[in-house]
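Our preliminary data section would be incomplete without showing what the modeling component actually yields. Below, a chain of 264 amino acids is followed by its predicted structure, encoded as tokens that our downstream tools consume directly.
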Amino acid sequence: MTCGCVIFAYDGDIAYGPQAVLASRLVKKHLDIPVTLITDIATASAIDCSIFESMIYTNVNDSNKRRLAGKEIAFKNGNRHSVYHLTPYDRTLVIDSDFLVFSTRLKEYLNSNYDFMICENMKDLNPSRQGSHVRFDPASLDMLWATNIIFNKTPEVEALFDLVEHIKDNWRWYGSLYKFDTRRFRNDYAFTVACHMMVDFHTALPSPVLFNDQDQLIKVSDQGLSWIVGMENFLIKTTDQDVHMMNKFDLLDNLDKLTELSND
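Predicted structure:
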């Protein structure tokens, strides 16, 4: 059975290609598996693609907008469901380009026999924030995080990914049914609903540390990463922790230093 990682990256208002290169380097260092990039020609032409085992080129016509660090940015995320048919691996880890692997924790789960695994929550190190616990509505579902997913190719898993595509194509209807905000498409929401419809068809992955768009990365060293967290301005340090870094601007500003941590 082949096992590898797949990352989606399409440049827009933010350069996601360089993030994907960093994420790939960290995956190969800590998990020792090959990485495939799903992207477009424009994004690939702006980065060094030699780190990737293979490249898959697709175009995404639809785009979303969201606010990050006080700025409205456009991004493309509408084809995550296609990874089931596009992945070259029998067992696949899918991660966002801002998911930074600094530990070997996921190795255990890659070596497990569970057919579909997804992150149920994340660790927000600011105790005053709601953090990673997101509920669509008091009468609805707790959100799953599509930031990292592991799956095998089975008929049941294929049905789940097909259902995610169906939910995307009928976004407003499912938003009305499950009481979530439909102003932009979120893979988190689509996978949450699909797992619920298939009677909680998932096993939980370990929770990474979540840093939102208001948190600042102020120091990168071999001893760990140092952060200023939110408006409270208190200092936190992480060591050997997988990180979901939503502040894309800080990620890119510290790209060279973070890349040094990915070297053997």
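The chain has a mean pLDDT of 94. The domain at 3-208 is CATH 3.90.550 (Spore Coat Polysaccharide Biosynthesis Protein SpsA; Chain A). Preliminary results of this kind motivate Aim 1 of the renewal.
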